[in-house]
Write a structure and sequence with these properties.
By secondary structure, the protein is an alpha/beta fold. Helices cover 33% and strands 17% of the residues.
Length: 198
C-alpha cells in the first residue's frame, strides 16, 4: 500500500513539474498588410489595410473556422490596421472586441499578461492583434525561451534593433495548458497561408 501511495505522490510531482496551471488559450497575430504609400509621422497610426490585407484577414477567419477554433474576445492595439484586422475576425466569430495599449507598448506587457489570466478562463480563447515589433516581446514575456526564437519566427536585424517577426501568414498559440518553463512547445506557430505579394 505504501508503494502505491509513493508512486501516486511521485506521479503527481512529475505532472506538476511538467505542466503549469491552466490559463486561457491565447492566439497572437500580426495585423494584415497595410496600404502602401501612406504618409508616416503623425498619420502612422491611421494607416489602413490594403485590399490584400483585407483578404488576409478573411483568410485567417476561414482558417479559424475550418479548425473549429472559437474565439471569445479579440484584443487589438489602437491603430487602424490592427482594429480593421480585429474587426473582420471578430465579426466572423461573433466575438467581443477591445483595445489594449500593451499590444503596442512593450512596457505594459507584464501587467497585460497578468490581466489576461485574471479576466479569462481556461475554457476561453483570446485573439491578440499586434505589430511585428511587439509580438516577439509578447511571446517572450509569455514564457518563450530565448533558445526558441528562430523556431517562433523571431529575428533581430541588428543587435541594437527591435526583435521582429516577418510576414503576415502566422498564428502563434499559447495553449491553455502550459508545459514546463523552457519548453518551446509553450508557444506553437501555425501558418494559415503563404504571404501575399502586393
Amino acid at each position: 500500500m505504501k508503494t502505491l501511495q509513493m508512486l501516486t505522490l511521485l506521479s503527481g510531482l512529475f505532472l506538476s513539474a511538467t505542466v503549469l496551471p491552466a490559463q486561457p488559450r491565447v492566439l497572437i497575430i500580426r495585423h494584415s498588410e497595410k496600404l502602401s504609400g501612406w504618409p508616416h509621422g503623425e498619420f502612422n497610426s491611421f494607416q489602413p489595410l490594403s485590399p490584400a490585407g483585407v483578404a488576409t484577414s478573411h483568410a485567417l477567419s476561414g482558417w479559424l473556422h475550418a479548425r473549429s477554433i472559437r474565439v471569445d474576445t479579440v484584443l487589438s492595439s489602437a491603430t487602424t490596421r490592427t482594429l480593421h484586422t480585429a474587426f473582420i475576425i471578430a465579426q466572423a466569430q461573433n466575438a467581443g472586441i477591445g483595445v489594449n495599449r500593451a499590444l503596442q507598448d512593450t512596457s505594459l506587457i507584464d501587467a497585460f499578461w497578468k490581466q489576461v489570466k485574471q479576466d479569462f478562463g481556461q475554457d476561453q480563447t483570446v485573439l491578440l492583434v499586434s505589430h511585428s515589433n511587439i509580438i516577439p516581446y509578447l511571446l517572450l514575456k509569455a514564457g518563450l525561451p530565448d533558445s526558441c526564437r528562430t523556431e517562433a519566427g523571431i529575428s533581430q536585424p541588428r543587435p541594437d534593433f527591435w526583435l521582429l517577426i516577418e510576414g503576415y501568414d502566422s498564428v502563434w498559440e499559447i495553449p491553455a495548458r502550459q508545459p514546463a518553463p523552457g519548453a518551446c512547445a509553450g508557444v506553437r506557430r501555425y501558418f494559415f497561408r503563404r504571404p501575399a505579394r502586393e
